[in-house]
């Protein structure tokens, strides 16, 4: 027996003094209301209504049981409301600010198809870590070394003009003795201003003979992209970003630079949703891969997929 449904019929009939009106108020046929109340009476072992006259009257036992029945019905309704609110609870996730807006929108749509009410909050790597630490978001896509990453994004250098070779050799960026030409800088955007990316590139630049100022961190991704679009400077970025900014892209000959990302969340269910059902959609936002763990979007040097002449 469905005790809640039976109590709902009991409360409705007692409130209207009629099986017909009470059943209509409960949204069920009169015959169903009668069966449910009869089953409840059998369950309790006592009559709830006096049916000796045309009017429906509560017995003394029914009067004693009515408050409990009302509490059960009210509690059930409150639980249903709470469940609906919980189901619609937004999962706020801090994501890299370099993710294209359209791909983030596609991620939100994909999440809703899976009954996940996702809200994304773009931020830099340090800010994402802080938001997760202070629980201002339910989860975050955080920067980690590529070796321990769930998603990996190969990085290269992008410029407004095509590259003459299938890879960029840092030695070619050294200034000549005459110093008649400004040295081309490598611009690190804030997303890549993390030790496991910045430090290897800085060391490689020093080993190649670049001046310290030739490897520099830009104040914002907009400033970094603007410099690459408006000068000979090079932008350290993913191929997805290079395509977004209409820049030519090539991998670096030397250190293998990869963004690494993993997900953190305060609730295990949220963590599983981000790591499983939304894995491929997050990968597309990051420009990481086709959604297979460990795979990358890297192409061999000179691959026509880069769109640049070799």
TrEMBL record:
InterPro entries: LysR_HTH_N, WH-like_DNA-bd_sf, WH_DNA-bd_sf. Keywords: DNA-binding, Transcription, Transcription regulation. It comes from the Bacteria. Residues 1-59 form the HTH lysR-type domain. GO terms for cellular component: protein-DNA complex. SUPFAM superfamilies: Winged helix' DNA-binding domain. GO terms for molecular function: DNA binding; DNA-binding transcription factor activity. Belongs to the LysR transcriptional regulatory family. This is DNA-binding transcriptional regulator, LysR family.
């Amino acid at each position: 027996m469905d005790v809640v449904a039976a109590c709902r019929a009991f409360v409705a009939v007692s409130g209207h003094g009629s099986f017909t009106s009470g059943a209509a108020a409960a949204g069920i046929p009169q015959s169903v209301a009668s069966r449910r109340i009869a089953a409840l009476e059998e369950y309790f072992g006592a009559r709830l209504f006096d049916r000796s006259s045309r009017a429906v009257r509560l017995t003394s036992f029914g009067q004693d049981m009515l408050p409990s029945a009302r509490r059960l019905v009210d509690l059930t309704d409150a639980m249903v409301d709470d469940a609906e609110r919980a189901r619609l609870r937004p999962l706020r996730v801090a994501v890299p600010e370099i993710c294209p807006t359209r791909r983030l929108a596609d991620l939100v749509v994909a999440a809703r198809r899976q009954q996940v009410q996702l809200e994304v909050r773009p931020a830099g790597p340090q800010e994402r870590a802080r938001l997760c630490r202070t629980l201002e978001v339910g989860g975050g896509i955080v920067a980690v070394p590529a070796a321990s990453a769930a998603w990996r994004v190969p990085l290269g250098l992008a410029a407004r003009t095509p590259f003459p070779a299938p890879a960029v050799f840092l030695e070619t960026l050294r200034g000549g003795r005459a110093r008649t030409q400004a040295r081309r800088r490598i611009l690190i955007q804030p997303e890549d201003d993390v030790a496991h990316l910045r430090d290897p590139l800085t060391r490689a630049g020093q080993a190649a003979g670049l001046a310290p100022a030739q490897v520099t961190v830009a104040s914002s991704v907009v400033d970094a992209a603007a410099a690459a679009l408006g000068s000979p400077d090079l932008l350290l970025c993913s191929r997805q970003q290079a395509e977004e900014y209409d820049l030519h892209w090539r991998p670096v000959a030397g250190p293998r630079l990869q963004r690494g990302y993993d997900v953190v969340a305060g609730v295990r269910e949220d963590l599983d949703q981000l790591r499983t059902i939304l894995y491929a959609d997050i990968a597309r936002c990051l420009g990481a891969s086709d959604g297979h763990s460990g795979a990358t979007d890297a192409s061999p040097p000179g691959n026509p997929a880069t769109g640049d002449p070799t």
